[in-house]
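User: My instructor asked us to take a sequence, write out its structure as tokens, and then describe one feature of it. I'm not sure where to start. Here is the sequence I was given:
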Amino acid sequence: MSQTTIRKPDANPIVAALLTWFVLGLGHLIINGQQRKWIFTLIAGLVGSCLCLLPGIVIGILSVVDAYQTAERLQSGEE
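Assistant: Let's start with the prediction itself. The structure tokens for your sequence are:
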């Protein structure tokens, strides 16, 4: 399995965080270009919400923070 690198100097951390929070984690997919992370956080959030509301909320908040931090790193030129 090969690791792909992502370069997105135009990634906007605020938009990534807002899309992740309000539109089912799409900040990972649309802004950061991270399809696997989006699928994982979507499934984990849905399962966590079905089992008990608190794990779903925690996963959602952590996902927003991660989307913001990843977009910041991509914007600064990291891969």
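For the description part of your assignment, you could build on this observation: The CA atoms of residues 5 and 39 lie 18 Å apart. Try explaining in your own words what that tells you about the chain.
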